[in-house]
Every structure is written in structure tokens, then in C-alpha cells.
Amino acid sequence: MSYLWVKALHIIAMVCWFAGLFYLPRLFVYHASSEDKVSRNRFCIMERKLYRGIMHPSLVATLAFGLTMLWMNPALLKMPWMHIKLTLIVLLTAYHFSLGGFLRRFAAETDNKTHVFYRWYNEVPVLFLLAIVILAIIKPAF
Length: 142
What we know:
The chain is mainly alpha-helical.
């Protein structure tokens, strides 16, 4: 498979992953605000399906295609911007798994965070997206 095909698949997987990273905390906002059992159960189902059915497979695909690109072009690992990008990806992956923790707490009905907390937490992936895309496109020389 050519490098450009792998790159295209990497970008597609990344877009799918970020769609979930943007939407799941928004569901948490609504879930934290819900007051009836039917709504809370519905949010638990929606959150679980989004996390397990879309976000997690997209994370795996993003990482797999990204690592394949590094394998195909190891010179990228000599560039300082790539080290910063990889660090941000590790942190973003930790954010992803933190969402899984919130999901489990909502399912167990032990979450005690407010909708305001989730509104702010929802903004975190925007910062990662800005930094990662700028690094990947601009490739600044440090």
C-alpha cells in the first residue's frame, strides 16, 4: 500500500476519532443535566455505543495508520515537530481513556461532576486538534 493511501486512511480515522472526542463530552453535559431515569439510561446507551463502536476503533485505526506512516518514513522521527506531535497524541489518548472512565462512572451512577465541568472538559480536544494539525501541516523548525 502506498504512503499516500496510508496517510489518507490515517486522516479519515483521525476525523472519526475527533468526532467522538467532540461529541461524547457533549453527551456527558446532557447526561449530567438529566433528571429522570429514562433519560439517564438512554444517555448511557448512546455514550457506550459511541465510545466502543466508533471512538475506540477510530483511535486504534488512527494509531495503526500513524505508526505505519512512521515505519514507511522513519526520517519523520528525526524531526523535532514530530516529537511534539507524538507527545500530544499520547496526552490525547490519555484524554480518550479519561472519557471512558467518566462513561463507567455514569453507567455505575457514581458520577458527581456537574454539566459545567463537562462543558469545559469538552473544549480540551479542540486545543489538541489545533496543535496537532498545525504541527503536521506547518512542520515548524525548532
